Amino acid sequence: MACLKDIAPAAENNINTQFIVLDKGRTILEGRNKTCLALVADETASVHFQFWGDECDGFEPGDIIRLANGIFSYSRNTNLVLRAGRRGVIEKVGEFAMVFVETPNMSEITWIPDTNRSNKCDVI
């Protein structure tokens, strides 16, 4: 499993990681879709995680979540978020007992396209 500090924006569903939900924002309706943004973290970094649909009601702060085949990319409103996407899966694997740090927040880092790999980005 990848540590959050090691993820980078990419157009691929290949992130497998585990984290704790620290805070969850309000649920927003975007047309027929329900979304919710959360701050999640592991022992190396934090990141904004976007829940979709029923996921918004299925997870709360303190939940430990395992993500399989996730994607770290820009959302419709140009925020960089980690999410399960269509091919990914999230599942609750525990509660409250996980070491974490809140910085750095990988969603707030400035990334630039990797000229050698068109579907990847690097830190400035």
UniProtKB/TrEMBL annotation:
UniProt lineage: Eukaryota, Viridiplantae, Streptophyta, Embryophyta, Tracheophyta
GO molecular-function terms, A-Z: DNA binding
GO biological process: double-strand break repair via homologous recombination; mitotic G2/M transition checkpoint; response to ionizing radiation
Record keyword DNA-binding present: yes
DNA-binding keyword on record: yes
Top-rank taxon, per record: Eukaryota
GO cellular component, one term: chromosome
InterPro entries on file: NA-bd_OB-fold, SOSS-B
Protein's recorded name: SOSS COMPLEX SUBUNIT B-like protein
Keywords, alphabetical: DNA-binding
Protein source organism: Salix viminalis (Common osier)
